[in-house]
Amino acid sequence: MLLRVVLEKVDIVTRSILSLTHEEIEAWCLEIGEKRFRADQIRRWLFENRAESFDAMLDLSKAFREKLKESFTLFSAEVVAHQVATDLTEKLLLKMPGGDTVECVLMREPDRRTICISTQVGCAMGCVFCASGMLGLKRNLGREEILEQILRLDRLLDDDERLTNIVVMGIGEPLQNLPTLLPVLDDVTNPKGLGLSPRRITISTVGLPEKIRELAAVGKPYNLAVSLHAPTDRASRLNSSRSTTRSASPRFSKPRTSTSQRAAGVSLLSMCCLAV
Ligand code: SF4
Predict the structure, then answer these.
(1) Count of CB atoms within 10 A of residue 54's CB?
(2) What's the predicted TM-score (pTM) here?
(3) Distance of CA 170 from the midpoint of ligand 1 (Å)
(4) What whole-number distance in Å separates Cα of residue 167 and Cα of residue 215?
(5) Is the pLDDT of residue 197 over 60?
(6) Quick check: helix, strand or coil at residue 115?
(7) How far is the CA of 124 from the centre of ligand 1 (A)?
(8) What are the b/e assignments for 141-151, b being 16+ CB within 10 Å?
(9) All domains of the chain, ordered by start, with CATH?
(10) Exposed/middle/buried for 105, CB within 10 Å: 0-12, 13-18, 19+?
(11) Among 92, 204, 231, 246, which lies 20 to 30 A Cα-Cα from 156?
(12) Binning pLDDT at 50, 70 and 90, where does residue 233 land?
């Protein structure tokens, strides 16, 4: 019994506040007797003020900050490597609490600050040129793990720099983790979040027709980057079969979809992207 209580306590303490939606943070505030608007203050510190700790959230009472520290961590991953290139591109290697690692990157161009984030540990797509897919998919990243990449990279920017673009092109096939990715992007595009336009977010895919339709149905003007990797279905299948360390790509093990159907999926999204 005592062990269970201790384990539950450990679980609560190691839970990142980023795993909670805004509504869930509001509910937690009410549950502990705080006002609902405290959640707005927390959101400002997380997204606008780039707080590195709960202690930095200075318009919250000390007692409330202590309660936050007892209940949550701000970030949950450990930065195990931080590389800075001569062109000021920065790469973070994050180690998640379970030991899995993912990479994310900040790129500086004269008029842009673009980050590239990962959505999965490993990848099931098996593109022959890609080391990330060599061992197949281990798991989808959670909400807090995707959001942490964004917020940690945002915190690498100087005070006068603002994030301008996000490309979801890191490790993993983003469309296979849409239920987690989309709410994160909602937070990022929310004016009370990072306030980034959906038009400045690009989601990359190897081309999963059903998932592309699912994304199109969301009705947000995200950009879609389709990496076909080969000019024809046959060439793609040959590429896929050259990989010996994993099963065939789900892209081709599913019931066949014609090129025209795939194109229809893309154009559907394009219409969605361009219509707003
Ligand atoms: S979809 Fe991306 S991460 Fe997955 S194997 Fe292909 S290139 Fe690698």
Answers:
(1) 21
(2) 0.82
(3) 8
(4) 15
(5) yes
(6) strand
(7) 8
(8) bbbbbbbbbbb
(9) 2-71 (1.10.150.530), 78-275 (3.20.20.70)
(10) buried
(11) 204
(12) low
